[in-house]
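yo

u said u wanted the structure for the complex thing, so here. seqs first:
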Amino acid sequence: METQNRLWRVLLLALPILVFSVLVIWPLLSSFYYSFTNWNGFNRDYEFLGLRNFAKIWTDRLFFDAIVNTTIWMVAALVLPTLTGLFLALLLDRQVRGARIFKTVFYLPICLSAIVVGQIWIWIYQPDWGLLNTIVKLAGNPDFNYAWLARPDSALFAVIVAWSWQQTGLSMVIYLAGLTSIPSEMLEVCEIEGATAWQRIWRVVIPLLTPSTVVVVALSMINSLKGFDILYIMTGGGPFNSSDTLAMHMYNESFKKYLMGYGSAISVVLFLIALTIIGVYFRQLRKVDEIYG
Amino acid sequence: MTSILRRGFLGTAITAPLVTAATLAFADGHEVTISHYFTGELGLKAFQEQIDRFEAATDYALKDSPVGHEDFKTDILVRASGNSLPDVFSYWAGARVQFIVDSNALHPIDDMWDNAGLDSVVAKSVADSATMYNGNRYLVPFNYHYSGVFYNKAVFADAGIDELPTDWEGFVALCEELNAKGVTPIALGSMNRWPAQFWFDYLLLRTAGPDYRARLMAGDASYDDPEVHTAMGMWKDLVDAGHFAENANADSWTDASDKVARGDAAMTLMGTWITGYWNGLGLVPGEDYDFFPFPSISEGVAEASVGPVDGLVMAANAANVDGAKAFLEYMVSNPDVQAAWSKAQGALSANVNVDPSNYNSVMLKAFETVAASEVFAFNYDLATPPPVAEVGLSMFSRFMDDPSKLDEILAQVATDASAAFEQ
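structre next:
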């Protein structure tokens, strides 16, 4: 009986392991392999270049622009939804009239696909008849027609705003759940002892929300690392590569320039960066775990 | 429960290979797999009709997997990298086909071409430029397009313009006249970059000539040459004079076409596919809109027409070689297929047996313009290798964003393009 159970365990585990191997491990190893070649996607007789693709990265102007953009993207995509989510949660945690409706409304965008969100914001940013410029026009600036997504100074930030709009709902819900676990007696005591509202939030609520923050930061980080689709639909890395992140740059080099080998080398670098960030994060997480058990 | 599961596993294990074997057996003899990017509402329907004709006329069955135009560029590469290209696929003649021929991913079709006598079927100008690569035939032209200056007739009439420009001075005067009457002369939708390329193509072809352009496209000339500065400088003069609608990089080519259709702008430099788009909006060719060829600039320079050729090619490892060849031959040589297809697509047929009376007045004029041209040149992103085209296309949108940086842009592109040629 025990042997049969073990056999079933192995059999049932075999399928997910097989799927994971085929869809994750195999492509990962293939990327490592192709990063040493000049494969263009079509040719079967590619050559091995050793570390030349990696050496080329150091002379690639667009790669370093993409590193800067990726850093901006990751920091903003982590900080903005976390802060706005926390702010909304603190607002809605009180007995506000219609709080339930607001919660639903703020959460709804997370249910939409990034492509839909991207398209909605493309319309909002449209220079001639988009919502944003229409508001500016109505506010007394009738000739205003700034093209938010088509100008290199604003394209990346415009996408970050759209992204944050979508992700805020998720942070808000997690923080709202965290707020329910804070005993109201504790806050009442603080109030009796003369703590101001700001002191209560800063000294009591936010520290007690640390477990929620850990979850929010983890989810925001994972989401921002894989945030490719919304950039792809809204700017495609443009105008002229000004909103290229590493993932977009890798895509453009691989699929638009047909430099699969070089694109793989970029993906290896991206993988190592993601691995480092996640490694550091999990180390920090262990410390938090030790404190909060 | 366990026995049901086991039986399920067993059943699947036995039936799966049988189904696969049956599919393969069918695929061996009759099935021809195809992928293409003709996915517009009219195009998809019209293409299916041509497939139906082919299937009715032969023993073959086509397994069709269409992919949207922009996504196709990625999709076909993904399929090639997985060694699973369809037997036949549509592709853009020129540098893109050259790229995959050089990668040994295509099957030559010289024997089919000769046996079917396609030399007497395909227009020579198109056959010479679009079908031969490294000394062999690889592509049949399914249709081609011509790029011209399409304009709104009512807007021209309201502005009192009754003479179309034939030279650069006339064109600039036309723009000034329109501007003076409060009409934006030119709409350009360069959000996806490629619509801007026709300006560069024509300005360079009309000033430096087709030979210089061919050298630039092949990497034998530099983007920092005086020829390129001259062509781009003329473009800059037009932008600086306020002849282009604002925010070109925020508009798609359909947005720019809509501006002209609505009368918010007077004209746009675009391919003949705009006729299919405008006809779909209810505009009448010849009545609501028309076109004129890009004006001459330098005397003694051969007059070139610019446009893409949509072709059909065959994968090097096609499972059904005979079926694929039969399909290619049928699609290009059957005049009924060609007439119906070019009509639906707003395209021109490369088949000389197609009666020009099938075209509407605008398309007929395009056909005659190409026929009278000394050279037919592929547009920029089909004339230079894909890694270089990426550099150039970004140059156009960067230029439209800030033309004052032209010298800096060209110096940067010269460096980036020569690096891209070495890859």
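Chain B has a mean pLDDT of 90. The domain at 147-306+385-421 of chain B is CATH 3.40.190.10 (D-Maltodextrin-Binding Protein; domain 2).
cya
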